[in-house]
Amino acid sequence: MIKNLESDTKQASRNDKRVTRVGKFLRKSSLDEIPQFFNVLLGNMSVIGPRPHAVPMNYMFSTDINNYMFRHAVKPGISGLAQIRGFRGEILSFYDIYGRIKLDHFYVKNWSLALDFKILFWTAGAIFSKNGAGY
């Protein structure tokens, strides 16, 4: 691990040198998400909703993608429709971010308690599958 190497400019990736072995385990087991539950308890986040992006990425995507900010009509979530449909991790192409935003917009437009429970169920399945939820 190299401390603070590009920490403010580079998104985490699969073979990121900044991630330790312990960090890889935490990501693979989704234990790295536990601190976000404090944000849920504080009311800043929801368990289910569009995953938040870093502020610099929000700015960049909002200038490149029409209606990008519509995803902010609901609170950000620990897990979301885009993540359980495979759009998670590092953004390597326009397709990656476009797929996320398309599913985030679908979620915002079609929000229901039933949809939240489906996403929660699918998320639990991903966490407990042999591949895990993280990378």
From TrEMBL:
Protein family per UniProt: Belongs to the bacterial sugar transferase family.
UniProt-recorded Gene Ontology molecular function terms: phosphotransferase activity, for other substituted phosphate groups
Record-given protein name: Bacterial sugar transferase domain-containing protein
Species assigned in the record: Cyclobacterium qasimii
Pfam families linked to this entry: Bac_transf (PF02397)
Residues in Bacterial sugar transferase domain copies: 4-128
